[in-house]
Amino acid sequence: MKKVITYGTYDLLHQGHINILRRAKEQGDYLIVGVTSDAFDKERGKLNVRNNVLERIEAVKATGYADEVIIEDYVGQKIDDIQKYNIDVFAIGSDWEGKFDYLKEYCEVVYLPRTEGISSTQLRAASQAVVRVGIVGTGRIARRFVPEAEFVNGVDVVAAYNPQCAEAEAFAQKHGVQPFADRYEDFLDAVDAVYVASPHLTHYDYARRALQAGKHVLCEIPMLLSAEQTRELFALAKAKNVVLLEASKTAFCPAWSHLLVLVKSGVIGDVVDVKASLSKLMPETTIREFDAAAAGGSVTELAPLCLMAIVKLLGKDFTDVHFYSKLQDGVDIFTKGELVFRNAVASFTLGLGVKTEGNLVVSGTKGYILVPSPWWLTNFFEVCYEDQNKNKKYFYAYEGDGLRYEIQEFASMIVNHRAESFRLYRDESVVIAGVIEQYRAGVNTTCLQ
Ligand code: CTP
Questions:
Q1: Confidence band of 146 (pLDDT split at 50, 70, 90)
Q2: Which pTM value belongs to this model?
């Protein structure tokens, strides 16, 4: 019996897939089809797959050509499968010509004609309404947002707003979007959704007016500096039936999501301590980060990601909070914060004028998880035990600047009419803003000389 194997995602199964499966089957007597797992697709940067793995397997089975369906879950699995299933022929579409020649060492490799004019990518694009996004603020993070958005299907960055006309024009020219500098309302008219990337103190006003106009809002961190304002804007988003999401980028990346489910499923026992550090030494002290009037300082700049980690790992019910800060010209260049929970304690160490190791350590009753610096660009972590032989390392893709993951979640919430993201609940954003607010109000703060 001649055994053939072929692989694919088979999202939104189309005629091209049916043709290739038929052609593959014709190469032998028995056809095995490897369908990619959801996690494997994400890891390969395929973020937009519509059907989940079970739906895709069912669709492949329904073609009637597959004698057996398996799941492809890791790089290198093809070689394992060819040996395990005693495969004679590896078949794949001609779009992969040459790419799988390395398998010739193990079996015959054939590239079969691809069906022209159709692909899952095309079908996804054709069936998805495009969300027109406008960016408010044209600074550093906005410049990184535009190329990242290109990786997300159904998102089109079309406009940029900056009250400084020259800056709006320069940004617009560089990124091929429409500039707006005068009436914010005109800018809102041109978009469906807004990414607020302006200075901290302007977030509330820009976000509120966008929500009021029925536009979805993705707001940079720190989203807002007060719990009450955060609650108010979420209530407004709810009333207007639009999405409001805090752009806490780490919360949406694949490695962080996996770390969280591992902790929640008890691999390190009960969590007793969380330590998150983030420092960014900035010699240039004339920038926004060091401007007290613009709410600069290490807490407003750096605490949101650490607080996101703490809140996701330990919850919202802390009973006590303490801060220790070193100030310079009215701005904290270093702050250590401690949050006390009933069964656990958490701390964050932040520096704009002090450097520290930027890692995250989650300690539990059975073991701990270490995410090395820079933990907030999570692509690797290790679960560690007393018996080091049981330690396990986890590696993930963290593509580009990592903003594509939050943009993807934002777009998915809009398209699927999902008001809330389990990756960062509204209540969690309220708590994060509340801690920053307490710090700014001077609650339990010791100043270091
Ligand atoms: N295929 C084909 N003709 C097409 C599209 C895909 O022959 N028009 C083949 C591919 O060459 C591959 C298999 O179908 O052997 C599975 O490909 P997959 O990546 O799942 O399909 P695409 O439509 O190419 O998906 P995407 O657009 O997401 O890359």
A1: very high
A2: 0.81
pLDDT at 45: 76
Q: What is the mean pLDDT of residues 217-244?
A: 98
Band (201; pLDDT cuts 50, 70, 90): very high
| Residue 95 CA, ligand 1 centroid: distance in Å | 8
Pocket mutation for ligand 1, best pick of 12, 114, 122 (most atoms within 8 Å of C-beta): 114
Task: Name all residues whose Cβ lies below 6 A of ligand 1.
Answer: 8-11, 16-17, 20, 92-93, 95-96, 114-115, 118-121
| Per-residue pLDDT tens over the stretch 169-182 | 999 999 999 999 99
pLDDT digits (tens, 9 = 90+) for 118-129: 999 899 888 777
Atom of ligand 1 nearest to the CA of 94: 11
Protein residue with least CA distance to atom 9, ligand 1: 93
pLDDT score at 369: 98
pLDDT band at residue 183 under the 50/70/90 scheme? very high
- With cut-offs at 50, 70 and 90, classify the pLDDT of residue 396: confident
Substitution candidate for ligand 1 out of 5, 13, 17 with most atoms within 8 A of CB: 17
User: Ligand 1 atom 24: the closest Cα is on which residue?
Assistant: 119
Q: Give distance in angstroms: CA of 445 to centre of ligand 1.
A: 59
Average pLDDT (48-72) is 94
Could you tell me the two tokens for 105?
Answer: 């060492």
